[in-house]
């Protein structure tokens, strides 16, 4: 009976094996271990197959865009301008807090390794802190550091009363246990909002997490400031990462959108995306979302920041989005550019979460 | 500037006011309080408007069902049979544990007030415990009890080593703070899986909650045992309650379905539901889902258990589902009945969670 279950489970999940490049034997073994008990349902982590997207890059736009009306051009949602407005408000608040209490907010960043995209992000965050009058500290750890070294850096920042927010720059090297490390960030300093308790409180109606994850919070702010009413709209989130896709879908739902989540196992992503009034692209796949994926007039928020080699750029690469911008801007009614869209607003949200944390710590309203 | 924001927020959310029966002044006041800071985004709890569905009851089937082919009849997914199979496995495991360790699993139920539907559920749970050899205890508190009384009952069960699972029967009377009470259930005895940390771990890939909420876990088990492959399927969850709709949508996504969540603010629920291969109805609205909401061949899981007066029944009422069964069974390929579908399997999952908790507590594999 039990082995029947195992075979059944293996059959049920056989279609995955091609996509995830596990042999069916390995797949069967993984599922067998967890599932062949009383239930036929497997354990969740045993079915956490990676999302591997096949992208039809639109590097040759010329032939494709012909069918679109060249006159129709989406409004560009300028993330830099919006981020500046927000940061200006934060700067005033930091000054007011300093005058009233003598304290300023402090942000600590733990950075492991030398990923150049991560370095860029961290550099931007630190620069933004300086601009807003927020103290910042970085702990740079080597690529091959131990988990204990990361946890020790965390502890030091936990104990430091001048630090109100701690972020661990992701992704971490493979040998480190990301879940364990994120679980160790104290809730009241978890300005990235990645702790599962914050995530649960984001998901559940009637609750409010201590911190909203920065990118989802930024997406909502971009929509609201662009005059987009979210309630009742169909929103499609492309990608389901723990740090962007998942929390963005949950937050859009809290704002009463009707949300669908598209991922690498979705059979007809293009068709589903085309139903959406609001498309949030967060798959991490350059140019995944083509013009044909969009309903005319849709609002497009492009979270993708994919580095592509470009020797002509300062750091040897440039960032492009998940959305084929040239095509999409002819179909959408509004779109965020990459760079200059979600990125700057995400950084502003990090500053804001740090400010809110400091206000909470110093009981300053 | 700030008052501009307030007006803007009020305008953005004005369309809600009709549905949620708040005056626009009250609405503006609620949103104003939380939102007119640096951001234009409101706080989440300030926009937790209730889901008020308008149901087109199908009490007069006769005229409607004529257009369906009378020959086409969905397979009935027999929740009672599946629950018996699972419970039989649990019973064996309880016996094995008792023989090996001398301990049996114990479940405690905290029941506030005298809601007759809640009484029925609790009765069923206790009876199921007895059948499986699981110890059960009930703490019956009066409708007007204080929060402290509930928390005291919780504490007693937390300290009792013979209790491995505690559930607070919902809904609680309005005067009690449900979030606070559910937060107080110790994680390792939270067999309902309603603690936000368990919910966060359910939502996030790479993580596994200590307990999956019973109804969502039961829905997945019903699908798997009915031979339904979930991966890649379009699933529509109707309703987004913290205890059913939300966790079911998260769990279906962990199983790689492409999930859309329909709620009372969804503009075209019928059209969206009709795209689904798997429909989970959990709105708590009798007969909300008509035959016309279903794609031919869809799988329908009806979580609704709506009591309707019926003097001919033992307790003066009977339960009907969220799905108009007579219509749906002519369109769907498989459907769960109410009663006898999700209900018994939910109870079996509660027993299983309690068993797993006891095994964990006594380090018994």
Description:
2 copies of one chain form a homodimer. With 365 residues, the first copy, chain A, is α/β, with parallel strands linked by helices. The first copy, chain A, folds into 3 domains: 2-47, no CATH class; 64-77 and 207-343, NAD(P)-binding Rossmann-like Domain (Rossmann fold), CATH 3.40.50; 102-192, Rossmann fold (3-Layer(aba) Sandwich). Chain A has helices spanning 2-12, 14-20, 24-35, 61-65, 79-101, 116-132, 147-159, 178-184, 196-203, 214-225, 245-254, 269-273, 325-328, 342-361; strands at 75-76, 106-112, 135-141, 165-168, 234-238, 258-262, 278-281, 299-302, 306-309, 317-320, 334-335. In chain A, helix 5 runs parallel beside helix 14 and helix 10 (214-225) crosses helix 14. Chain A is globular and about 55 Å long. The N and C termini of chain A lie far apart (63 Å). The model of chain A is unreliable at 1-36 and 60-68 (pLDDT under 50). At the A-B interface, helix 5, helix 9, helix 10, helix 11 and strand 6 of A face helix 5, helix 9, helix 10, helix 11 and strand 6 of B. Chains A, B: InterPro entries: Aminoacid_DH-like_N_sf, NAD(P)-bd_dom_sf, THF_DH/CycHdrlase, THF_DH/CycHdrlase_cat_dom, THF_DH/CycHdrlase_NAD-bd_dom. Chains A, B: Residues 213-361 form the Tetrahydrofolate dehydrogenase/cyclohydrolase NAD(P)-binding domain. Chains A, B: One of its GO terms (molecular function) is methenyltetrahydrofolate cyclohydrolase activity.
């Amino acid at each position: 009976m039990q082995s029947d279950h195992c075979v059944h489970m293996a059959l049920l999940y056989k279609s995955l094996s091609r996509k995830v490049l596990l042999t069916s034997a390995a797949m069967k073994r993984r599922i067998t271990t967890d599932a062949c008990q009383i239930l036929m349902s497997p354990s969740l982590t045993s079915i956490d197959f990676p999302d591997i997207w096949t992208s039809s890059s639109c590097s040759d736009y010329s032939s494709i865009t012909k069918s679109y009306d060249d006159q129709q051009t989406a409004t560009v949602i300028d993330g830099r301008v919006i981020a500046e407005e927000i940061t200006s408000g934060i700067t005033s608040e930091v000054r007011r807090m300093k005058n009233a209490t003598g304290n300023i907010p402090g942000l600590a960043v733990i950075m492991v390794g030398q990923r150049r995209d991560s370095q860029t992000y961290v550099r931007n965050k630190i620069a933004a802190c300086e601009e807003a009058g927020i103290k910042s500290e970085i702990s740079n750890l080597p690529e091959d550091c131990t988990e204990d070294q990361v946890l020790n850096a965390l502890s030091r920042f936990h104990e430091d009363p001048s630090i109100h927010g701690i972020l661990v720059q992701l992704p971490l090297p493979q040998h480190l246990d990301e879940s364990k490390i994120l679980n160790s960030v104290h809730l009241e300093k978890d300005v990235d909002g990645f702790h599962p308790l914050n995530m649960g409180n984001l998901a559940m109606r009637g609750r409010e997490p201590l911190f909203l994850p920065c990118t989802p919070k930024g997406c909502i702010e971009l929509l609201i400031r662009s005059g987009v009413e979210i309630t009742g709209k169909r929103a499609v989130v492309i990608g389901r990462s723990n740090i962007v896709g998942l929390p963005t879908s949950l937050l859009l739902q809290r704002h009463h959108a009707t949300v669908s989540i598209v991922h690498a196992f979705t059979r007809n992503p293009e068709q589903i995306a085309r139903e959406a009034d609001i498309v949030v692209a967060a798959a991490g796949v350059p140019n995944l979302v083509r013009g044909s994926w969009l309903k005319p007039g849709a609002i497009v928020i492009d979270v993708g920041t994919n580095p592509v080699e470009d020797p002509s750029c300062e750091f040897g690469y440039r960032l492009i989005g998940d959305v084929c911008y040239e095509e999409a801007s002819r179909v959408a009614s509004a779109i965020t550019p990459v760079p200059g869209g979600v990125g700057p607003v995400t950084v502003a949200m990090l500053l804001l979460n740090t400010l809110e944390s400091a206000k909470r710590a110093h009981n300053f309203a």
